[in-house]
Design goal:
By secondary structure, the chain is of the alpha+beta class. The chain contains 6 helices and 15 strands. A hairpin with a 3-residue loop joins strand 11 and strand 12. The N and C termini lie close together (10 Å).
Length: 239
């Protein structure tokens, strides 16, 4: 196995970031300074980062139905609950794949597979996320087309996305938005731009994986089929 792939598989860093660690001469193999492209035998060779031995844990792939009011982070300096507080009974260290805002709920993946996590969040792979959005006001067909074709935000035009009207009453509209970008607060900013502020937001699925019967705050392991599907989606050959 290539050294940078091994480091990524341990959840230390993405493969690209692992290459930088190696290039900075921070990684050793059996006591010697490693080079980018070195090959190792994972169960035999001893790999260290800054002198600390790297050990590969069994990969864990978790789907959490993130509740509102929970921070998407491993820890919070303000003492708020984080998504890690939801993972009772999980002994393996994992990190969130991307982020959901504090007041947004829904599908959140967590893993210690650094390479997969990196690719799932990289714009190159255009991983689809489906959101259910409740907005203020009645959304017109012209506004739907505007959202679909992209709107100008302070950090540039949004990409083409899927928009469906699920229903409305006299004061609000329920939408389904399918995006493959991952900008900060993107949906809220898009809806603000077209004059329909978000009242509630939930991510229904990530890369085709849905929360299903999971209640907010509940989690489960991904199935082997789901993991293979994610790997295929971003061009990773299953081990």
């Amino acid at each position: 196995m290539r050294l940078q792939q091994f480091i990524a598989s341990c959840g230390i860093a993405s493969r690209r970031a692992a290459e930088l660690l190696i290039a900075e001469q921070r990684v050793t193999v059996n006591g010697r300074i490693a080079k980018v492209g070195d090959q190792i035998v994972p169960d035999t060779d001893q790999v260290a980062l800054d002198g600390a031995i790297i050990r590969r844990d069994t990969h864990a792939y978790i789907l959490l139905n993130k509740p509102k009011g929970v921070v998407t982070s491993a820890r919070d300096t303000h003492g708020r609950d984080t998504v890690m507080d939801c993972l009772a009974g999980l002994a393996t260290r994992v990190v969130p794949v991307g982020r959901l805002d504090l007041d947004t709920e829904g599908a959140l993946l967590l893993t210690n597979d650094g390479d997969l996590a990196f690719r799932l969040t990289h714009p190159r792979y255009e991983v689809k996320k489906v959101y259910l959005v409740h907005v203020r006001g009645v959304v017109s067909a012209a506004t739907v087309r505007q959202l679909q074709n992209g709107v100008p935000l302070e950090d540039g035009m949004t990409a083409v996305c899927g928009v469906r009207v699920l229903g409305h009453d006299q004061r609000s509209t329920r939408l389904e938005l399918t995006l493959h970008e991952g900008r900060k607060r993107e949906i809220k900013r898009m809806c603000d731009y077209v004059g329909h502020p978000v009242l509630a937001l939930r991510r229904a699925s990530f890369a085709g994986i849905k929360t299903g019967r999971l209640k907010p705050g509940e989690w489960r392991h991904l199935t082997q089929q789901e993991v293979k599907g994610l790997q295929k989606l971003v061009g990773i050959s299953p081990e």
